[in-house]
Amino acid sequence: MKEKISKKFQELFNTSGTFFASPGRINLIGEHTDYNGGFVFPGAIDKGMIAEIKPNGTGKVRAFSIDLNDYAEFGLTENDAPQASWARYIFGVCREIIKRGGNIQGFDTTFAGDVPLGAGMSSSAALESTYAFALNELFDLNIDKFELAKIGQSTEHNYCGVNCGIMDQFASVFGKKGHLIRLDCRSLEYKYFPFDPEAAGYKLVLLDSVVKHELASSAYNKRRQSCENVVAAIKRNHPEVEFLRDATMDMLNEVKADVSAEDYMRAEYVIEEIQRVLDVCDALEKGDYETVGEKMYGTHHGMSKLYEVSCEELDFLNDIAKECGVTGSRVMGGGFGGCTINLVKADKYDAFVAKAFAEYTKKFGHEPKLYNVVISDGARRLA
Ligand code: GAF
């Protein structure tokens, strides 16, 4: 990948720059808990974005996306937002740095990635983290890693229309080889957990439904709004409650008559999911993969029936996993398409994959995709 990036850089700008990379992520458990101040349990993966960058001494950014074969040029003021959605990620990162007082100038860049787009592995966070990390280094800004993650998150909020939580950008910046990160999204305290399913006789495999349903970002924002509605209702009796993380099922039941049935279901899922993350972390510390798997199925059920962010294709893949005796399986990421994450005993792996491919293709007329991922390091400068 580096070769094609540098070839294009040379061709467009007649010079060479510095390489930076940031990964996508998986999440073992804890979906839609981040913006509720809850826990998540992601890990960075060996797929991500690589960019070559060089300051150009002007007020303009000149950027080329190799994967999309598209060029964009834009200035750094709020009025300079580019049209292309991929370029808005880079523009947004620049703007968020400038808003925080960071003194940056124009630069030239080419980039490419191998995180599948729309598969729920956070290609956009990988892109944001690459540029946040790179600009911090190249312009000597001294921004700490927490703020780099927040710059990516604010880019999503203010320039891409998604009111996301902090999980994806955090994992992309803080990722550590061979470790998952239990992140408390309220305090941003985090702990690395060694994670080596292979050593315990398991494989971790992602099955991509290769579907992405329309309006995913507005549906995502709507879920977040539901959670905030419930918090507002609970707060009337419990002013200390800032997030659903601070609420209990008893508190939720107290306001059952005051919130919509839909908002109630959303909150029920979130409260249960936050507990599942803690249960999975405890189980993993004991090497109890069976409990980990059971909780993953619990998450899928909640995401499908209460949070309603699954879809026919993902439910189908989940059912096949169950039929094949897969230890744990669930929709991963925001939902509305993308991947299932599956924890499979090594001796069941081949039969599961064969059946999933055959039956999925028969039912939906196209194959799913399979990704084996390795838990890897976060944002970095490349040699
Ligand atoms: C998306 C968001 F970007 C994350 O912040 C998180 O909410 C996730 O969906 C669901 O857990 O990836």
UniProtKB/TrEMBL annotation:
Q: Where is each Galactokinase N-terminal domain found?
A: 7-55
Q: Where is the GHMP kinase N-terminal domain?
A: 89-176
Domain GHMP kinase C-terminal, residue spans:
283-356
Query: What name does this protein carry?
Result: Galactokinase
The answer, when asked if Transport is one of the entry's keywords, is no
Known EC number(s)?
A: 2.7.1.6
* Source species, domain of life: Bacteria
Q: Which InterPro entries match?
A: Galactokinase, Galactokinase_CS, GalKase_N, GHMP_kinase_C_dom, GHMP_kinase_C_sf, GHMP_kinase_N_dom, GHMP_knse_ATP-bd_CS, Mevalonate/galactokinase
The EC category is transferase
Against Pfam families, the record matches this protein to:
GalKase_gal_bdg (PF10509), GHMP_kinases_C (PF08544), GHMP_kinases_N (PF00288)
